[in-house]
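Hi support team,

I submitted a single chain yesterday and got back a structure, but I'm not sure I'm reading the token output correctly. Could someone confirm the output below corresponds to the sequence I sent? I've pasted both exactly as they appear in my results page.

Thanks,
R.
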Amino acid sequence: MQNFNELVQKADRGTIDKLFMVPKSRVYHEAHGTFKKLPSPFTSYLLMRNQLILLLTYYSKMKIITNFLPIFIVRLFQSFLPPNRKAKLKGVLSVFTELGYVKSKRKELEKISVNWDDRFLNYVGREPFGYPEFKSLIEAIKMKVLNKKN
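Hi R., thanks for writing in. Yes, this is the structure output for that exact sequence:
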């Protein structure tokens, strides 16, 4: 069996048509561990911006309407809470300046995707990046309500 680097090189040279990777390992880590300890303005900005850009890039068109827009509104309101209000607001609003990047990434994904079923979010577990609402707003609300009752 050839190693992965050799296959990538062949794909880059065009000697093979398609290259698929099926990961068999899972990595578990504390979501935003560094951010919780050191919430600098820069990390606050990056957290808000990168979350929204990632979702906008990988969500299906339906999920953009049903999940992304409500999450965007919630993040907008959250950006007015301390600490680092200005940085968080800048991160949320930067989504608009990154639309060209998102559009080009979505075009690349359309070329290589068999279907557009939000499969990416299935790989990141039950609570992607520590936020269950990224997968399902309704399920996240149910979880929070049930946790408050317990």
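A quick pointer for reading it: Residues 78 and 93 are 12 Å apart (CA to CA). Let us know if anything else looks off.

Best,
Support desk
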